[in-house]
Design goal:
The protein is mainly α. Helices cover 72% and strands 0% of the residues. It contains 14 helices and no strands. The longest helix has 28 residues. The protein is globular, with a radius of gyration of 20 Å. The relative contact order is 0.21.
Length: 330
């Protein structure tokens, strides 16, 4: 009898098969910043978000229908609260992406990997390791060089918006780990609730900001529809299901390391396809961000276990850290 991929030893060739889909998620996430710039302008960001998630929700809802019917009132409310935070992340990140380069956006958003453990340490009132603090300082220096292009120029509006998205993303991950109402909830169902609430927020905002979503949809050509479908089907739907599968087929740490290559792919797409140009010091800054986030990931303090009041047991790794706690990318 043949073994499943998740049953085969980590050292076998099957580990490559497990890694490839996760690496592909990092690649499509890296391309998402370029995709946003192809389908949205400053005045059409909100309408584009309505279209993007309006395409995803029915497909995800079909799969999640049974799990959704089992949700309690508290789980619906917990998912809705997280959905409000998620809508803020997408608005900041997407608005930022259309006001800065795809390369900058991809590198700056990666700071969430450093900010999240800092927030975890602050909440737990524990001092992070010195090596991690050094990595965080290196990341800040890298962003300063990157956004200033090696000079004294202040960051652009887009850079600041993406940095705000990184801060809110970190808060979201910490809130996700501590929201007891959704801790043991089916992740497929709670994700649908969050995306539905976020889409509702976008729809309300679209009533007073920019053109209507259907007007933007009619203005799209074949190329723009292809990019929009890429954002909806690959960067959101495909990425979510791969993460759900991967966290069971391999270790959360391995998944995290592979997904951590996203900013590298963002830089590749930004430079090769968007024509982003970076001076020598900006290139150095981008390299420092990549090195610092990887160093920070490896030296980050272990997340505190979240205790179950009834059973006295620590939360699973999926609840505390890992891909299931990460919001979908832009």
């Amino acid at each position: 009898m043949s073994a499943s991929l998740s049953d085969l030893p980590e050292g076998s060739s099957s580990s490559v098969l497990r890694d490839l889909p996760v690496l592909l998620v990092a690649v499509v996430w890296g391309s998402s910043f370029l995709a946003v710039q192809r389908v949205a302008e400053p005045g059409t960001v909100v309408a584009m978000l309505v279209l993007r998630f309006g395409l995803v929700l029915p497909l995800l809802g079909v799969v999640a229908w049974r799990a959704l019917r089992r949700l309690s009132r508290a789980e619906w409310l917990g998912g809705a609260a997280l959905g409000l935070v998620l809508s803020g992340i997408f608005l900041l990140e997407t608005c930022g992406a259309v006001h800065t380069s795809a390369t900058n956006a991809g590198l700056i958003i990666s700071l969430a990997m450093v900010l999240t453990p800092l927030g975890e340490s602050a909440l737990g009132r524990t001092a992070p390791p010195k090596a991690f603090l050094a990595a965080a300082g290196l990341a800040v220096l890298g962003v300063a060089l990157l956004t200033g292009d090696g000079g004294l120029r202040p960051p652009t509006l887009g850079d600041l918006l993406v940095l705000g998205a990184a801060l809110v993303r970190s808060a979201y991950v910490l809130a996700m780990a501590r929201t007891r109402a959704v801790r043991d909830t089916d992740m497929l169902a709670v994700t649908w609730v969050q995306l539905a609430v976020a889409t509702g927020v976008f729809s309300v905002v679209a009533l007073s900001v920019g053109p209507a979503p259907w007007t933007v949809a009619r203005s799209y050509g074949a190329g723009q529809w292809a990019w929009l479908l890429h954002l909806s089907l690959f960067c959101t739907l495909f990425a979510f299901f791969v993460q759900m599968w991967a966290v069971r087929a391999t270790s959360p740490s391995r998944v995290s390391l592979l997904l951590g290559t996203e900013p590298l792919w963002a830089a590749v797409f930004g430079i090769t396809m968007a024509g982003n140009r970076m001076g020598p010091l900006a290139l150095l800054g981008g390299a420092l961000v990549l090195v610092a986030t990887e160093w920070g990931r490896r030296t980050a303090p272990a997340p505190a276990l979240i205790r179950n009041e009834d059973e006295g047991e620590g939360a699973s790794g999926r609840d505390a850290v890992g891909p299931s706690a990460e919001p979908a990318q832009v």
